[in-house]
Design a protein that fits this description.
Order of helices and strands: HEHHHHHHEHH
Number of helices: 9
Strand order of the largest sheet: 1-2
Shape: globular
Largest sheet: 2 strands, antiparallel
Oligomer: single chain
Number of strands: 2
Number of domains: 1
Distance between the termini: 24 Å
Length: 182
């Protein structure tokens, strides 16, 4: 499976959900999120999402959660990521969701970086798998990213549904592309 950089609206929706919750939203939530983004923009959606959990009430908790959900496990790299997010939150306290979205887009491009590369590749793969899972109407429910990613290993998409194939999922995703922030 080719790795992606996060740049389409659909990928941004999925990336910000994964960064904050490490979940595949499933088709029901993804469709709702897509409608919200189509009417209000992806930045507004990201900012709203950053207010949906009590555990996101302080900057350090949110920065730590996002760093963990990016898959950054090396202590030095994790501290760098947390410090980066904290400084961005301080610079833009009313736009923490947008900070996370912008950070996810930036992070997705670090696949060749010696410090963050492996985690960025894994995060991109998880975003891609989540998008494939979530645009398929046969997958209405939220799923843990780690559970569904294991299903995708070896490209066994038919394990999820009998009709899903990679090309169809990407075509469906492309058909969803629209909105004020595209």
């Amino acid at each position: 499976m080719a790795l992606i950089d996060i740049n389409t609206i659909n990928e941004k929706i999925i990336a910000v959900v994964e960064a904050m919750y490490q979940l595949f939203p499933g088709n029901d939530y993804f469709s709702q999120f897509k409608n919200n983004v189509d009417s209000d923009g992806v930045d507004t959606f990201a900012n709203w999402l950053s207010t949906t959990s009590d555990s996101f009430s302080d900057d350090l908790s949110l920065a730590t959660t996002v760093t963990e959900n990016f898959g950054i496990t090396d202590p030095i790299a994790a501290n760098l990521a947390i410090d980066f997010l904290l400084s961005q939150f301080q610079n833009s306290p009313n736009n923490r969701g947008k900070v996370i979205l912008d950070s996810a887009v930036l992070f997705s491009g670090l696949t060749d970086d010696p410090i963050f590369g492996q985690a960025a590749k894994a995060f991109n793969e998880s975003v891609q798998n989540s998008l494939i899972y979530s645009v398929d109407s046969h997958n209405p429910s939220v799923a843990a990213a780690t559970e569904v990613t294991n299903i995708f290993k070896g490209h066994s998409y038919q394990v999820i549904t009998n009709t899903l194939d990679y090309a169809t999922a990407l075509a469906t995703s492309a058909a969803y592309e629209s909105g004020p922030d595209s």
